[in-house]
Amino acid sequence: MKLLVATIIGLGSLLLCGHSVSAEWFGDLYVGPTFTRSQDVKVDRAAGGGTLRDVGFDTAASGGIRVGGYFEALPFLGLAVDVLQFYPNVGPQTVRFDGCFVVGGCGSRQGGTGSFDISTTAISFDLMLRLPLMKTPDAPNGVIQPYVGVGVPLFLTTVSPRNTALFRNHASDTDASFGYMAAGGIAFRVYKNLAVFAEYRFNHVRVDADLEDKVSASRATFRTDLDSHSALIGISARW
Question: Which domains does the chain have, with CATH numbers?
């Protein structure tokens, strides 16, 4: 990951030096559903804690914006800054509780999670690779462009307890953590400097939210991994 970060920063410095490096710039807008795989949620608090097994996350609409450029000297290589927003909320469900969630009561049992509102913003610096196909005089970089991208996003994830006995009086908290992203898609030039694209994207981040009880001021943690799969469609301006 450190090598990827160093590569992106180095290439970004070159790309931003407009006087020495020419680029084909682009701006993308996209939307689509994001599915987040079920995960264990670990809870630690003064009254005890443990693990909620196989908690499901909602599939919800997501969207974002991406801007960047491809090097003119290396038209298959580019860099981008991307901002994706999605909402892997936890709805009411029955799961297995392993641990000590009530004073004097430890072990394994079935219980209700209640609900949590979760919003995640992923701010990513991406390395992009594309394959220009069907080149024409009007489209020297190809009418069709399959592409892949990788990045190291900063995820800003806000966890807000809603109607849950585990965090009855707790306020929301925003966790800032780095993760990773991988994407693949295909873009079609439809008119002059305009293209449409379809993309699959995978995001991973480990969330560690610190929730404060508004009555007692005690704290509890909400820890889980978010492994999210997005199916996106969008429009791209090129210049």
Answer: 2-238 (2.40.160.20)
